Amino acid sequence: MKLDGEWKVKDFSIGEGTLKKVYQSDFKLDDFIPIQIPGTVRQALLKAGKIPDPYFGYNNEQALWVEQREWWLVREFIVSPEIQDKLTDLIFEGTVFQGEAWLN
């Protein structure tokens, strides 16, 4: 099962996402922005107009705040009947520094 494609992403202060229970399936995603996976948070922010182009001039300095936030990526998907009720590996082929996965 491939999970690439469009996800949703939002930033929180460190620890805030867990306190707000972003991991719950009924968490409102109204202010999340789209992110393409594979892709980066900075690419999503640039596409959404939240940061200036970091590859132009000193614009990267205006986006240093990105590293000071935690980022929650959310994707809803249906598990195919062939793998339901079976032990299955979930493999992430790229995370930066650290990541946690929540499945509901």
Largest sheet: 3 strands, antiparallel
Overall SS class: alpha+beta
- Based on Cα principal axes, name the global outline: globular
Number of strands: 3
Count of separate DSSP helical elements: 2
Please give the radius of gyration in angstroms.
Answer: 15 Å
Determine the fraction of residues in helical runs and give it as a percent range.
Answer: 10-25%
What is the element string, with H for helices and E for strands?
EHEHE
Mean pLDDT: 93
Strand arrangement within the widest β-sheet reads 2-1-3
Sheet-strand content, in percent, reads: 15-25%
Terminal residue distance? 17 Å
Low-confidence stretches: none
Short description:
The protein has a domain at 5-74. The chain has 2 helices and 3 strands.
Description:
Strands 2-1-3 form a three-stranded antiparallel β-sheet, with helices on one face. The protein is built from two helices and three strands; from the N terminus they run βαβαβ. The two termini are about 15 Å apart. The protein has a domain at about 5-75. It is of the alpha+beta class.
Helices, strands, pairings?
Layout lengths: L4 E8 L3 H4 L13 E5 L3 H7 L22 E5 L30
Antiparallel strand pairs: 1-2, 1-3
Keywords:
104 residues; alpha+beta; 3-stranded antiparallel sheet
